[in-house]
Amino acid sequence: MRVNGLNVVSSKDLPCGNCGTCCNAYGLVDLHVTDLFRISEYLSISPEEFFGRYCIIINDQDGNTAFSMNINGGCVFRANDRCSIYPVRSDTCALYPFNYVCANLSTKIKKEIACYPQCFVHSLDENMLVVPNIERMIDSRILFMVREMYLATFDGRFDEAEAKPFHLKGLSLLKDARMREMVYRKMMTEMMKIIPMKDDTAEPVLSETEIRTICDQFRT
Q1: Do residues 32 and 129 make contact, with C-beta atoms less than 8 angstroms apart?
Q2: Distance between CA 48 and CA 69 in Å, rounded?
Q3: Which domain holds residue 183?
Q4: Which tens digit of pLDDT belongs to each residue from 104-144?
Q5: Are 6 and 129 in contact (CB under 8 A)?
Q6: How many CA within 13 A on the CB side of residue 102?
Q7: How many domains does the chain have?
Q8: For residues 68 and 159, is the Cβ–Cβ distance under 8 A?
Q9: Listing from the earlier edge strand, what are the strands of the sheet with 65-70?
Q10: Is the dihedral of CA 95, 140, 176, 212 positive or negative?
């Protein structure tokens, strides 16, 4: 599919080479509350045990407390060149590196992983617009909102009983059609802010209508 000279593709159709760049490029992986329950169930351990083994507490300079999965030195769930928790992997992992509509790949994506030349992203054509997994992005945005609600009550100690209502709230909102459409519309607005500009007119290479049409097609 070509639009305004750009080769438009879905991130789901790109040939990941399983090189492990995304498992090693960063030291932390953001998790939603629901990730704690999904992954721990997959591993047949309790959410509290998973949190204690694999998560790290983060305190920022403003006094806010959060948590992430510690993958410093490489993710412990990568085994035999594969993700051992692939069916329940976090949104961070599932969407990487295309967690938004990406164009002009060298300006951000390729620059971020410059020290990992083995990643398939380096072989992609520059004249390409990559559309992320829209439904997974919507899921992630909804669960992020729930995570923020949970963090407002989080004191640095994970308690399964206290966290479970937020997990269930997230699962409920994922099924809410009105919530999903609201998040989708907001995503469209945000995507316009990162669309590259035409050199001659300084206007976006794609209009908001074109972005919506493209995403609608790839969403179905």
Answers
A1: no
A2: 13
A3: 2-219
A4: 666 677 887 788 888 888 888 877 788 888 999 999 999 99
A5: yes
A6: 22
A7: 1
A8: no
A9: 28-30, 65-70, 55-59
A10: negative
